[in-house]
Write a structure and sequence with these properties.
The chain is mainly β and 402 residues long. It has two domains: 174 residues, Pectate Lyase C-like, CATH 2.160.20.10; 181 residues, Single-stranded right-handed beta-helix, Pectin lyase-like (Pectate Lyase C-like, 3 Solenoid). The strands form two sheets. The protein has a 19-stranded parallel β-sheet that branches. An eleven-stranded parallel β-sheet has the order 5-8-11-14-17-19-21-23-25-27-29. 44% of the residues are buried. The structure holds 2-acetamido-2-deoxy-beta-D-glucopyranose (10 copies). One 2-acetamido-2-deoxy-beta-D-glucopyranose binds next to strand 8. InterPro entries: Glyco_hydro_28 (IPR000743), PbH1 (IPR006626), Pectin_lyas_fold (IPR012334), Pectin_lyase_fold/virulence (IPR011050).
Length: 402
């Protein structure tokens, strides 16, 4: 006879079978779409058609890129909206771009757009950029084939998780995200040699509620670059170097830039980077603002300019002399920043004469100079009066410079 319990168990079991069947059916293996995985054949269209099938399903679905090496060119677009949450699982897979820049007609290699609830898990995306770096076609992002293709570009990918992804040898930036609210990047590995060109790790812009955690970045340019319109960003447990540190900006070069507001950067170790924590704004600039910025528990190992507000950022040297930046910097705190500086000037606050830096706090800092000149580290300050808490070495802006 059937007890209520056994009926419940049977129903439960049926649901379980249905669930397993459904979740099994919801995996679209790119091999079923003709991917060869021989590292020679272009498997890009197989990935696109697996995506299109998974994306069109009513229930949560996955694109599976099994272990193997896949060539993808010239570029692929994975576009939503999808009917349900979608996953791309590529654990153990290596996806490679062709080395030849001529094969690209767009400013990205792999683009994902207009998707909510994406989980992109695992995989190595290799941009094979070596030949492109040698050509050095865009030294300052100028015309010609510029900008060069970004390895992974996410636009309007919201409420998503990007995890255990490795990007290597990109031709240009490794990852670029814009309009990607409420997305988490975790265990990301960025690898390109120190002599690569313009290989920023992760560039973000115009988004809010993004967290980047537990990641390792070795590259030639900014490990993380924070552009206009970034709000409520948390960066934690990052190892950076070689590279160019964690940068905000550059800002003020274009009209109507949105503010950068609410950035928490914690537990970062930088080794041998060209800058540490930097803010770059152009002189002769359009208005803009950076506020509510908090740096905490940062270790610097032989970093040039560990802390640097550069409000006269003008790499092309074409800025009008005697003009100041219009980007105001306010409400910034530094707490527990330790280690060594490769330049004598460990703290450099070059703030704007027109909109001085306001409400800046420095607490518990110990940066020592380790370089050929010898002697202690120093600070250089303009248009700032930081509030000093605890012990700050080198003394921040002694003599009450404003
Ligand atoms: C993304 O969505 C926006 C707004 O619906 C639309 O204008 C745009 O064309 C979409 N992008 C792509 C690549 O489909
Ligand atoms: C973002 O994508 C969603 C679909 O996921 C779409 O409804 C929305 O219009 C897009 N927004 C923009 C700014 O493209
Ligand atoms: C980011 O981290 C904050 C603080 O831990 C958390 O409240 C928020 O939900 C996280 N956001 C995402 C998208 O993971
Ligand atoms: C910090 O990140 C590294 C690199 O991903 C990871 O190995 C380590 O477990 C993380 N630490 C914590 C406390 O999560
Ligand atoms: C963050 O850094 C502080 C100071 O160096 C250290 O005590 C703490 O264990 C670190 N936390 C994590 C999660 O790595
Ligand atoms: C900073 O600049 C923004 C944008 O121009 C402006 O709205 C804001 O009032 C300024 N804030 C301060 C403190 O000057
Ligand atoms: C520190 O960095 C400088 C270049 O910035 C380099 O020449 C020097 O060898 C490095 N020192 C150590 C101890 O790594
Ligand atoms: C600004 O002044 C510097 C140093 O005097 C000079 O080298 C540079 O050419 C000037 N730039 C312009 C645009 O006038
Ligand atoms: C800066 O902090 C003060 C309080 O310390 C607050 O009143 C003000 O609104 C903050 N400004 C910005 C732009 O975050
Ligand atoms: C700063 O660091 C140096 C080198 O590690 C150490 O000798 C010194 O005692 C530290 N100073 C403070 C004030 O903690």
């Amino acid at each position: 006879m059937y007890t209520e319990k056994s009926i419940r168990q049977a129903i439960c079991c049926l649901f379980l079978i249905a669930y397993i069947a459904r979740s099994h059916a919801a995996v679209v293996n790119i091999k079923s779409k003709g991917a060869k995985g021989d590292g020679i054949t272009d498997d890009g269209q197989a990935i696109v058609s697996a995506w299109n099938e998974a994306c069109g399903r009513e229930e949560p679905s996955s694109v599976l890129i099994p272990s193997g090496t896949y060539m993808v060119f010239p570029q692929i677009d994975l576009i939503g909206p999808c009917k349900a949450p979608i996953k791309i699982k590529a654990t153990g897979a290596v996806v490679k771009a062709p080395p030849e820049l001529e094969k690209f007609t767009t400013t990205y290699w792999i683009a994902i757009r207009n998707v909510s609830k994406l989980s992109m898990i695992g995989g190595t995306y290799n941009g094979q950029g070596e030949q492109t770096w040698k050509q050095n076609l865009c030294p300052d992002g100028g015309p010609g084939p510029c900008p060069l293709p970004v390895n992974l570009q996410f636009t309007n990918v919201t409420n998503s998780l990007l995890q255990h992804i490795t990007s290597t040898d990109s031709k240009f930036f490794h990852m670029r995200l814009s309009l990607c609210d409420n997305t988490r990047l975790d265990h990301i590995t960025i690898l390109s040699p120190a002599n690569s060109v313009n290989t920023d790790g992760i560039q973000i812009g115009r988004l809010s509620g993004v967290n980047i955690t537990n990641s390792v970045m070795r590259t030639n340019d900014d490990c993380i670059s924070i552009g206009q319109g970034c709000r409520n960003i948390r960066i934690k447990n990052i190892t950076c170097g070689p590279g160019d540190g964690i940068g905000i900006g550059s800002l003020g070069r274009r009209a109507n830039e949105e503010p950068v507001q609410g950035i928490w950067i914690k537990n970062v170790t930088m080794t041998g980077t060209e800058n540490g924590l930097r803010i770059k704004t152009w002189p002769t600039s359009f208005p803009g603002s950076v506020s509510d910025l908090h740096y905490e528990d940062i270790i610097m190992n032989n970093v040039s300019f560990p802390i640097f507000f550069d409000q006269q950022f003008c790499p092309l040297n074409n800025c009008q002399n005697g003009t100041a930046s219009n980007v105001n910097i306010s409400n910034v705190s530094f707490r527990n920043i330790r280690g060594t500086s490769a330049t004598k000037v460990a703290l450099k606050f070059d703030c704007s004469a027109d909109v001085p830096c306001k409400n800046i706090k420095v607490a518990d800092i110990n940066l020592t100079y380790e370089g050929p000149e010898g002697g202690p580290a120093t600070s250089e300050c303009a248009n700032i009066k930081p509030k000093v808490v605890g012990q700050v070495v080198p003394p921040a802006c002694p003599g009450g410079l404003d």
